[in-house]
Amino acid sequence: MNGWKKMTGGNPAMGLSAWLVHPAGRVRIFTELTKAHLAFYIALSAVFGHVIATQEPEGDTLVLGTAVWLLAAGAAVLNNIQDRTYDAYFVRTCRRSLPRKKITAKTAGIIAAGLIVSGLGILFLYFHKPFPLVLGILSLVFYNALYTPLKKKTCLAVLPGFVCGMLPPAIGWTAGSMASSDTGFHTLLVLMLVTGIWQVPHFMVLASRDTPVSPDPVPFFTSPFVWSITERNIQVLIWTSLYSLAVFLFLLKGGIAGYAFSVTLAGMALALPVGLAAFFKRCSNPTSATGFYAINLSLFFFMALGILDHLLV
């Protein structure tokens, strides 16, 4: 406990009124709590699903992306609240705002509620369809009610994590179209497979970077006594290879029409597992951020090129 107090620096937690008027660190705290970059990825995958449904981006697409970003950001804040005690025991997370008491859990809860209600409200009121709202609520259930508590206990947390990755493209699709006879529906299913499988190596590499700073019990998945470094790296490579195969399947299904974009994505899908294998073999520190960033950037380029393909072709 003394070590935890030392990490927090003894800072009094910032309440809502102070957080709103105090400029120092306000943006950084908000960006950290909302996991803004991950929320952007989630919103981008929803935009991709919407583009597949409508065949071209439009004003509704921007609204859809904004709604999903708000929802994902709110879920991330809620996740930070749920993990605030747990985060204090790991080098990667112990300096976050909630473990260091830079903001109160109550204030973070108000922010989370505002973001979630805003996101769900836009999905329901703007699109006038029940399915985007229902899928948005399901994404909260799988992420905050299943994935977040399970990741502290078992590696089976990857299963609700897999579903979490599949839902945003479906939210985008249902907001734009529901015609199951459309060939684009099959493209959507493969897209959902890509984003779902991606969650697994993303989760595994992220968890492998959780180095404990205390002798307190750590989650089953991150314990070094469960899997050796080699075993963990092999599993990351297996799931990354499956993710790459899903990208190839998406290309074979005609998800990308442009030749240059297709070749670029095919090259990326081939290079990713090969590059990670070479990195794991050469690097003595498998918790390096290199693999994490490579996996993340691969999904960003996949979605960005897919959306650009519908814009330009």
Question: Can you describe this structure?
Answer:
Helices cover about 75% and strands about 0% of the residues. By secondary structure, the protein is mostly helical. It has a single domain, classed as Farnesyl Diphosphate Synthase, CATH 1.10.600. α4 packs antiparallel against α5 (about 60-80), α10 runs antiparallel to α11 and α11 packs antiparallel against α12. The relative contact order is 0.12. Mean pLDDT is about 85; it is low at about 1-10.
CATH architecture: Orthogonal Bundle
Structural class assignment: mainly alpha
Q: Tell me the number of strands.
A: 0
Judging from the principal axes of the Cα atoms, what is the shape?
globular
* SS strand fraction: under 5%
Biggest sheet overview: none
Summary, kept brief:
The chain has 313 residues and is mainly alpha-helical. Helix content is 73%, strand content 0%.
Tags for this model:
313 residues, mainly alpha, Farnesyl Diphosphate Synthase, 73% helix, 0% strand
Write the layout of secondary structure elements.
Layout: H1 2-8, H2 16-21, H3 26-34, H4 36-54, H5 59-82, H6 84-87, H7 105-127, H8 130-150, H9 158-176, H10 183-208, H11 229-252, H12 259-282, H13 289-312
